[in-house]
Design goal:
This protein has 2 domains: about 80 residues, Multidrug-efflux Transporter Regulator, Chain: A, Domain 2 (Orthogonal Bundle); about 45 residues. The protein contains 5 helices and 2 strands. Strands 1-2 form a two-stranded antiparallel sheet. The longest helix is centred in the last third of the chain and has 38 residues. Pfam families: MerR_1 (PF13411).
């Protein structure tokens, strides 16, 4: 399957497919003419990459997880579940930090608005 065919089959543009390959997430071989040729399972691989990206995982982590898929779906082997739990905990921490920052910003905005209203501005 050529890169254009893979792009059409997955809805992922050619540029992203090249990026996935550069990151070691997707592999191809070159034809004699220098064109990328992907295997028949490439659409499933791209779907897995997209699933992991949607979960907020960086490409470095995705590269480590790619050999750990079970069957044709998005399910991963038990040996990586602790890694996924760690990623989830990190995400929860970042969400909490963002919520705190948002509350602080909201308080600052409210206090400034009240001060301006009191000053007649």
């Amino acid at each position: 399957m050529k890169i254009g065919e893979l792009a059409r089959a997955t809805g992922v543009n050619v540029r992203l497919l090249r990026y996935y390959e550069e990151q070691g997430l997707l592999s191809s071989h070159r034809t004699e003419g220098g064109h990328r040729q992907y295997s028949a399972d490439a659409p499933a691989t791209v779907a897995r990459i997209r699933t992991l990206l949607a979960a907020g995982l960086p490409t470095k982590v995705i590269r480590e997880l790619m050999p750990c898929f079970i069957g044709e779906g998005p399910e991963l082997d038990a040996c990586v579940l602790d890694h996924l739990r760690t990623q989830l905990a990190d995400l929860d921490t970042r969400i909490n930090e963002l919520q705190q920052a948002r509350a602080s910003l909201s308080d600052l905005l409210d206090a400034s608005t009240r001060a301006l209203a009191t000053a007649g501005r």
